[in-house]
Write a structure and sequence with these properties.
- It comes from Chryseobacterium tagetis.
- GO terms for molecular function: DNA binding.
- By secondary structure, this protein is an alpha/beta fold.
- Helices cover about 30% and strands about 30% of the residues.
- The protein has helices at about 10-20, 35-45, 65-70, 85-90, 105-115, 125-135, 185-190, 240-245; strands at about 1-5, 25-35, 50-55, 55-60, 60, 75-80, 95-100, 140-145, 150-155, 160-165, 170, 175-180, 195-200, 205, 210-215, 220-225, 230-235.
- Strands 2-1-3-6-7 form a five-stranded parallel beta sheet.
- The termini are far apart.
Length: about 250
């Protein structure tokens, strides 16, 4: 049996996931947690399960906070409406990342993925599993941003570029710019590499928003870009940039 815990603060979503998991005879549900505070207490006082299904945004914080306070050897399948946390999720024992509403086939696939990592004697080699997980490319498709006390979902195809200014990384849409929680290095690892390219230390651009490309005899490449007026490709990136344009 695979001892399993659900972390979910929305009761209807928790009940639905429990019903879905009941269809898998190998799953034994041993706990249900609704908050970061409750999670820290539960994992401090109980034997850790082999598998955890966890929402990310809880009423009193992010579920990441639980495992940063009480590290677990269990493996986590994150269930959430937002995919902006993929990079951090895969650093914290995650073996899969399911976007809500969860589909039966996606849930079955995630459980099979977990089982494929576990040898027949049920021993778990954490380092080996993490190496397998790192090979899976996760692609960011939407980002959650804050506007005052409100939240807004921005699709990455609506973003013309990401840029760094005063140690904050912003995303730029046709309407305005929004601060994000990412670094440019993190974005470079998780954005669709066919659409986005790091042209210099300050900018990652979306190819759909390039208006014109200007070159000069000294190998300088400048982009007329929406809504930025002009962006320069750093010299050490020019060849890679040209290769990317035609790939």
């Amino acid at each position: 049996m695979i001892k399993t815990v659900i972390i979910e603060d929305e009761k209807p979503a928790s009940r639905k996931l429990e019903r879905m998991l009941n269809e898998f005879p190998e799953i034994e549900l041993v706990g249900k947690i609704e908050s970061v505070e409750e999670g820290v207490q539960w994992f401090s006082e109980n034997e850790h399960p082999q598998l955890i299904f966890s929402d990310i945004v809880l009423g009193d914080g992010l579920s990441f906070d639980i495992f940063e306070k009480v590290p677990t050897k269990g493996f986590i399948i994150y269930t959430t409406a937002f995919d902006q946390y993929t990079l951090k999720a895969f650093k914290l024992n995650s073996i899969d990342y399911l976007l809500k509403p969860i589909l039966d086939e996606d849930l079955a696939g995630a459980i099979e993925k977990y089982k494929s990592f576990i040898p027949s004697d049920n021993s778990v080699n954490s380092q080996e599993i993490k190496q397998l997980i790192k090979k899976e490319k996760t692609t960011l498709s939407r980002i959650l941003v804050k506007i005052g006390y409100n939240l807004k979902i921005v699709q990455t195809h609506e973003i013309s570029c990401f840029f760094s200014e005063n140690k904050i990384v912003y995303l730029q849409t046709q309407e305005r710019s929004f601060p994000s929680d990412f670094t440019l290095d993190e974005l470079e690892d998780t954005l669709d590499e066919k659409k986005f390219f790091r042209v210099n230390r300050q900018f990652i651009i979306n190819s759909d928003y390039i208006k014109n490309i200007h070159t000069s005899p000294n190998y300088k490449v400048e982009l007329e870009f929406q809504p930025q007026e002009e962006i320069t490709v750093s010299r050490d990136r020019v060849k890679d940039f040209k290769d990317w344009l035609v790939s």
